[in-house]
Amino acid sequence: MISFISCSKLVPTDSYWLAVKSYSVFPKGGNSVLNGTLLHFEKDSLKTGHIYTGFTEKFKIRTSKNQIYLNDTLKFKVHQIYSDSIILDYDFETRVKFINLPSGQKLDKSLSVHEGQWSLTYDNQKKQKYNKKLILTELPLHHSSGPKICIEKDILTNRFSSSLGKWSFLVVNGQHLFAKTTFLLDEEFYLITEYLNNSSASIKCINCKDDVKATLTPVKSIKEFTKRDVLKSIVNKKWRITKIGKIDTISTLTSFPDSIPFQLSSIENMDLNFVFNEDASFIIKDSNGTMVDGRWKLSDTGEEIILNKGANPSDYIDLISINPDSLEIGNLRLFHPDGKKFWEKVHIHFKVTLQPTK
């Protein structure tokens, strides 16, 4: 039950709200995207923020009829009030649906969705083809505080997405919230309903069109002795492509800042070489002299080689299989198609077999 300040019947007292949908009030007008905006109405003030940043600002509030003033400036007009949501018009241009975030159930405060690799599996069988691995990094998306980089991998195809995403975990009014966004506007806001076995989380989407429920499960790390064996098989060898498994064009758009693009012929002619040194340095080089180098490490799960900080999908090289004399790898990388203009680039996922050369 939502209580309201009796003098105005407009502003919910000591309540928390999350914007889940925003659109222009004009049929052909623009749209100021406010999805993810947080509001905390207090008696004489309003705190505002975002699901990716938390609460960041506080304003003095007053109301008149169906209008809400912040610091004496008209900002909101109440369009409709429901039992669990409110519709507000912001600056007369954008209509925003906010859902109420009531006082949350007593989840263990020591538990959270944190940095690491997680599997996102949907309860609905029809949606299970969209199951994903999420790599939730601690790297800021825009070289500052706020949302962190999220990298997705399709479990069905075992391929990384070419879109760079962001993620956040936030506790608001006792409610544990997890948010992720990919390719600018593909937003998903989840309410954590339960923690399972002190690690996995049952989650429910609160801004999806359909009733979407899923489970977030941390991907297990490999044992230390297994990790040593994997590293022993990889390091201090010059690996050269000896077999092409598959080459797929993923995107012609550059949706993340990739490293130096290679020529596509470097894959087709099998002249791309890889070296992963024991001192954690690496070199990827083609026969034309184009080179990428830096630092590398094995992921905690043992399933990927991570280049540099792991800030882009191309920084993750899948270790599909490891044999005494060969590696099968998969990678999503930016390439210059031969014969195209120099600014035209494509993201291509390739699956190849490597063998050591002298």
For the biggest β-sheet, the strand order reads 1-2-3-4-5-6-7-8
| Average pLDDT for all residues | 87
Order of helices and strands: EEEEEEEEEEEEEEEEEHEEHEEEEEEE
Binned, the helix content reads under 10%
CATH topology of the largest domain: Lipocalin
Under the CATH scheme, which architecture of the largest domain would be assigned?
Beta Barrel
Q: How far apart are the termini?
A: 73 Å
The proportion of strand residues reads over 45%
Count of distinct structural domains: 3
The unreliable regions are 1-8
Report the biggest beta sheet as strand number plus sense, adding barrel if it closes. 8 strands, antiparallel, barrel
| Count of strand segments | 26
CATH class of the largest domain: Mainly Beta
Tell me the radius of gyration.
24 Å
Structural category is mainly beta
How many DSSP helices?
A: 2
How would the global form be characterised?
elongated
